[in-house]
């Protein structure tokens, strides 16, 4: 890969990690709204809200770490 290809790939990977953070946060917030709000069901829907909230937390904190670990460069000799 040329240096410009490497920087382009790094830029795309960074954007994907940031998108995972944002999407996970949005999912967690939506889970809280479903859990406590009257959006889908009057009085909230705790079962679905908790599941969405936990999935959002995992996506916010776990998925970017997993992607970064997968894309890490091998150590130079």
Description of the structure:
The longest helix has 34 residues, at 3-36. The model has no long low-confidence stretch (mean pLDDT 92). This protein has a domain at 24-71. The radius of gyration is 18 Å and the shape is elongated. The chain has 77 residues and is an all-alpha fold. Helix content is 78%, strand content 0%.
Tell me briefly what this model is.
This protein has helices at 3-36, 46-71. The protein is an all-alpha fold and 77 residues long.
Major sheet: none
Order of helices and strands: HH
Mean pLDDT: 92
Strand tally: 0
Runs with pLDDT <50, length 5+?
none
Radius of gyration: 18 Å
Q: Roughly what percent helix?
A: over 70%
Please give the count of helices. 2
The rough form would be described as elongated
The computed structural class is mainly alpha
- Share in β-strands: under 5%
From the N-terminal CA to the C-terminal CA, the straight-line distance is 19 Å
């Amino acid at each position: 890969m040329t240096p410009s290809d490497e920087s382009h790939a790094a830029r795309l990977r960074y954007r994907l990690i940031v998108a995972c953070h944002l999407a996970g946060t949005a999912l967690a917030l939506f889970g809280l709204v479903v859990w406590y709000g009257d959006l889908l069901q009057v009085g909230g829907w705790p079962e679905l809200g908790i599941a969405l909230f936990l999935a959002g937390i995992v996506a916010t904190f776990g998925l970017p770490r997993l992607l970064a670990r997968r894309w890490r460069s091998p150590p130079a000799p």
